[in-house]
Design a protein that fits this description.
Chain lengths: 123, 388, 388
C-alpha cells in the first residue's frame, strides 16, 4: 500500500520529539480522521535550525511528519512556507489517494509553527 | 520471517482438505453444471445435495432449508430485503442493532429509504444488545428483527436464544447473522428460535465467495435480489458455484468435528493474550464482553496510539492483526461498533483486534507479546497526547 | 466408457492452469482478505489488481472499469437494475430482446413490475435481433438497451456493433451480455460501443461462482443489489472471492491466447457436425443462424422425437448434450428462444444442442454421429407422430 520511502520514514522517523525552548510550535488536529500532529521549531537568523515532531496518527501521518521536518530543516522561513502537502507526498514517492489528507496535516503543522514563531517575533 | 496470522475474523486459511475438494470439483469429471441432465451434471447435482446436507447438519436444519449464496453479504441482503419486501403488507417496522456488520446494517438502512420504519437498538459498554430493549421495540407493525450472533469486531456473543424466545409466536421473522459464531460456538436454529440465518464460507476455513442462507420452512420469505434461472429451487438464480459449495460443505463438517477441542485450545491462548496484554501495558482495555465472547477473540484499545501504525509495525514483525481505527478504514470513520459502545473517537483510534485460529500456538502469543512491547513504547513516546 | 462432453455452453471444465491458480490462492500465504493492511491482505490485493488488469485487457477496457461479481446472473441483474434505477428520473423505457438469457430477461421483467415500460424486441427465424427494430423502438424515454452478444441456445451472434452505433450519442446505456461470446469471438467494448458488459467465469474455462461487470467510465450507473462493505470501490460489497477472481483473470488471459487457433479448430469440427447431421438425418434442421453463429455451436431440432429422451440415450453412450425441450426444463415450458424464433412447440420438443470445446476431437464428432443414428431411429419408430 505504501511506497518504500513512506515505510522507511515510518520505521525510522527523523526528528521525533519536542524542542524544550522552541521558537514556534504548531499543533493541528485532523478534521478528517481525528489525528494530531505537533511540530516545534528553532529559528536562528531566519533559518530553521532545528525541528521536531510528535504525531498521533497513521503510517502516512508519521512518514509525512518525518519528511516535512527533513524538508524544512536548514531552510529559511520563506522557503519553508512554500512546502506544500503535494511536495511532501512527492518526496515520499506518493501516497495512496485516501491518505493525502495526512500530508496536509504535516504541511499545516509546519506552517502553524512558523506562524507561531512570527507572532512571537511581532510582539 | 516468522509469520503469525492473528486475523481469523477477517478471513481464514482454507483447510487443506477443503482446498483439495474445491480443486477436485474443478477437474476430472466433476465440472458439470448441476442443471444438466447428463453424467457430468448429475455428479455436480449429487455433490450439491451432499453439501447442502452437511451445512444443514451444522446448524440443526433440514437440507431443503439451505440456499447457497455468494457469501455473507449476499445472505444478509437476501434475508433482510426478502423478508421485508415479502411482508410489506403485514407491517413496515424492522429492528436491528447498532453493531451489526455493514452488510446487515446497510441493508436495513436501505429499507429505511424505501419507506420502512427502522429501530436501531443501542448496545451496552460491552457491545451487547439488551433483550428487554428488543421486546420494548416491538410494535404491531414489526415484521423483521435482525441481530448478529457474535460481533466481528469485539467478539461479544448476543443473547440470541433469549431474543428468539421474545420473538417466538409473534409472527415476526428473526434473522441472525452467524458469520462469526458458526464453528466457534453451537449454532442451532431450533434452540435459538431463528427463522433466517447467514453463513459465510471463508470465516470457517472454507472458500471465499460462497455462503448460505438458512430459511426456516414456512417462513414468509421470497428472494428479491436476483432474477434469472430456476436454480436453488427458484430461490437463487445463477449457475451454482459447485466447487465453492462442496468446499463450504466440507468446511462445515470439519468445523463441527473440531469445534470442541479446538476452542478449548484457543480459549487458553486467548485468555493468556488478554491477561498478559492488560497486565503488561498501561492505558489499555479489553473491548467487548470480558467472558461472553468468542473463544478466539481478543480485542483492545490502547490509549495514545493509532491502530494503523501499530498494524504496520506488527506486520514488519510478521504478525497480521486488524484495527477499527479511522485511519485504517476506507471511510476514515472509526468503527461504528466501538463508537456504539461509548468508546470515544480518539480512543477507538487505538483499537487492535487479534483473532486466533487453527494454525496458532502459544509461541505465537508469546512472540506477539514480545513484539508489542517496543511498538507500544515507540508510538507512545511519539504521541503528542501521551503523558508518558 | 468413452466420455464426450458436448455441453460447453452450459459450463466448461476448468483449465488446468486456472485450477492450479485457484488452489494456490486458497493455500500457502495467499488466503488473506484484500481489505487487510497486512502482508497476507496485500498479497491478495495485488492478485486482485493483476486479475482485474487481465479481464480488462480481454475486452479492451480499463482495469478500473471492471467489477468482480458472483457470475453472469449477478452481473446481468446488477447492470440492468443499476442502470434503470439510477436513471429513473431521465426516463422509464427499457429495450431488450425476446431471446435473452433469463438472467437478463427476468431482470427486465422485474422492472416492468416496478413501473418501467419495457419493449421486448422480436427476433427473426435465426434468432437474430434486427437493428432497425432497435432504432424504431427507441423513444425519448429510453434509458437502457440490453441485448446479448451471442445466444446460448442457438449460437446466433447479434449485430452488436451496429446496435452500438444506433445507441451512440443518445444518452442511452447499452448493456451487452457477453457470457457466451467472450473467448469465442472478439469482444471489444469500444469497437462495439458498449457501456455495460456481462462476463461469466465458468463459460471460459474459469471457475464457477465468479463473473465480472464492465462499467464504462462515466456511465450513469450505481450498484443497487448489495449493501455492505466498501469492496470493489463501493461498487460490490462482500469479501472478494480472491481465488475465483484469480481464476477468472487467468481464464481470460488464456482465452485470448488460444482464441484464434482454437476456434479455427472448433469451426472445422462444428461444420462437420452440422453438415453430417443435416445430411444423415431427415426432418432435422439447424437452429440459429447458419453462418453468423458461434464457432463451437451446433443446435438442431429433430422432428418427432423428444429432447430429454435423446439426451438420456446419448448419456448412456457417454455423450453429454443439452436440449430446449419442455420435458427437460424445470418449468415444463419449451425454450423461450426457440419459440421466439417461430419454431412450434412440438418441434421445439426435439431440440438438441451440441457445444464443442477444448477437449473435443474429430473422433468425438464421429462417435456422436454413429451413436445418434440408432437413437433417432429408435425414438422415431416409437413415436405416434412419425410417418416413418
Ligand atoms: C458478522 C459478519 N457478517 C457478514 C460478513 C460478510 O461476509 P462476506 O465477507 O462473506 O460477504 C462478515 C465478514 O466480512 C461478518 O463478520
Ligand atoms: C447468455 C448467458 N447469460 C447469462 C448466463 C448466466 O451466467 P451464470 O450462470 O454465471 O450466472 C448464462 C449462463 O448460464 C448465459 O448463457
Ligand atoms: S492520520 Fe488518520 S489517516 Fe493518516
Ligand atoms: S413427457 Fe415427461 S416431461 Fe414431457
Amino acid at each position: 500500500m505504501y511506497s518504500e520511502k513512506v515505510m522507511d520514514h515510518f520505521s525510522n522517523p527523523r526528528n521525533v520529539g519536542e524542542i524544550p525552548d522552541a521558537c514556534g510550535v504548531g499543533e493541528v488536529g485532523n478534521p478528517v480522521c481525528g489525528d494530531i500532529m505537533k511540530i516545534s521549531i528553532k529559528v536562528e537568523d531566519n533559518i530553521i535550525t532545528d525541528i521536531k515532531f510528535k504525531t498521533f496518527g497513521c503510517g502516512a501521518a508519521i512518514a509525512t511528519s518525518s519528511m516535512v521536518t527533513e524538508m524544512a530543516k536548514g531552510k529559511t522561513i520563506e522557503e519553508a512556507l512554500k512546502i506544500t502537502k503535494q511536495a511532501v507526498a512527492d518526496m515520499l514517492d506518493g501516497l495512496p489517494p485516501q491518505k493525502m489528507h495526512c500530508s496536509n496535516l504535516a504541511a499545516d503543522a509546519l506552517h502553524k509553527a512558523i506562524e507561531d514563531y512570527k507572532n512571537s517575533q511581532d510582539k | 520471517m516468522r509469520r503469525v496470522y492473528f486475523d481469523h475474523s477477517a478471513t481464514t486459511p482454507v483447510h487443506p482438505l477443503v482446498a483439495e475438494e474445491v480443486y477436485r470439483f474443478m477437474t476430472e469429471h466433476n465440472y458439470g453444471n448441476p442443471s444438466s441432465l447428463h453424467y457430468f451434471g448429475q455428479i455436480a447435482r449429487k455433490a450439491l445435495d451432499e453439501s447442502r446436507e452437511k451445512v444443514a447438519k451444522a446448524i440443526g436444519a433440514k437440507s431443503e432449508e439451505i440456499i447457497f449464496t455468494s457469501g455473507g453479504t449476499e445472505s444478509d441482503n437476501m434475508a433482510i430485503h426478502g423478508a421485508a419486501l415479502t411482508n410489506i403488507k403485514r407491517g413496515n417496522h424492522v429492528i436491528t442493532s447498532a453493531v451489526e456488520h455493514h452488510a446487515a446494517l446497510n441493508a436495513v438502512k436501505a429499507l429505511a429509504k424505501q419507506g420502512f420504519s427502522v429501530t436501531v437498538l443501542p448496545v451496552d459498554q460491552y457491545g451487547m444488545v439488551n433483550v428487554d430493549d428488543v421486546e420494548k421495540a416491538i410494535t404491531d407493525k414489526t415484521i423483521l428483527i435482525s441481530i448478529m450472533h457474535a460481533n466481528n469486531e469485539v467478539g461479544t456473543i448476543m443473547p440470541i436464544a433469549e431474543i428468539g424466545k421474545v420473538v417466538k409466536d409473534r409472527g415476526i421473522i428473526f434473522h441472525v447473522d452467524a458469520v462469526q459464531s458458526l464453528g466457534k460456538i453451537p449454532v442451532n436454529v431450533d434452540d435459538l428460535g431463528i427463522d433466517l440465518l447467514t453463513v459465510s464460507g471463508h470465516k470457517i476455513y472454507g472458500p471465499k465467495g460462497i455462503g448460505a442462507l438458512y430459511v426456516r420452512k414456512g417462513t414468509r420469505w421470497r428472494p428479491t435480489l436476483f432474477h434469472g434461472g430456476a436454480q436453488e429451487r427458484l430461490r437463487r438464480a445463477g449457475t451454482e458455484n459447485v466447487p465453492g459449495i462442496v468446499g463450504l460443505g466440507k468446511a462445515a463438517e470439519l468445523a463441527m468435528e473440531n469445534m470442541e477441542a479446538e476452542n478449548k485450545r484457543l480459549l487458553t491462548l486467548r485468555d493468556k493474550l488478554i491477561g498478559e496484554v492488560t497486565k503488561r501495558f498501561s492505558h489499555v482495555r479489553l473491548t467487548g464482553h470480558p467472558t461472553i465472547r468468542l473463544p478466539n477473540h481478543a480485542s483492545f484499545v490502547f490509549e495514545y496510539i493509532e491502530g494503523e501504525s501499530v498494524l504496520l509495525s506488527l506486520d514488519m514483525k510478521g504478525i497480521a492483526a486488524s484495527t477499527g481505527s479511522a485511519c485504517a478504514s476506507g471511510s476514515l470513520e472509526p468503527s461504528h461498533v466501538l463508537l456504539s459502545m461509548g468508546i470515544p473517537h480518539e480512543i477507538a483510534h487505538g483499537s487492535i483486534r487479534l483473532t486466533l485460529g487453527a494454525g496458532n500456538t502459544e509461541e505465537d502469543v508469546d512472540y506477539f507479546l514480545e513484539a508489542m512491547g517496543p511498538i507500544v513504547e515507540r508510538f507512545r513516546s511519539m504521541s503528542p497526547l501521551s503523558e508518558e
